[in-house]
Amino acid sequence: MKFKKVFLPFAVLFLFAGICAGHAAAQNSLTLTAVGNGEKVRLKLGGKSKAIELEGTQIGNFTAGGEPPHRFTTLLSVRRENSLYLVAKFVSGATLTGSGTLCGGDHPETLLLIETDKKLRLKNVQTEIFASCVYNGAGRYVQGKMQVTKSKVSILFDEGRKKYTLIFDADEAGKGLQLISR
Fold first, then answer.
1. pTM of the predicted model over 0.90
2. What is the pLDDT of residue 155?
């Protein structure tokens, strides 16, 4: 009986500490949601939130693989020094439509990197199309599965006879998205 009286408060305390730690981790993670058809995104960090227009941004290089709507999936969110990095994949609407078009209409997949400071001020935006049946006339075709870990995203793809690895490595976050010929 004495064991239950002593154990129960400690179990509740450890459970509460675990919940608080998970909440604190979420407070430090940058998250992204699409606004409208995805021409804008909303970044969130803890209680802060900011809408950012991706198309036409003067910071970095944003190129959508196709027309809106853009559908985003967050793959990785990390903090390095004074920067927050978010890597997401997004699928765009078809630039070409109709049954007579190449591939029946292309729905390009693009890797997106957003770098901000802790006040959500945009520092850099990068994109790279990794899957498209019409890209550069040869298309880009993913080989194998996308690899996502706590600190790295890696995609292998072919463009005609050329072979590439598209990578973001949090340990080399300052390099941004890296397109490496293999």
1. no
2. 98
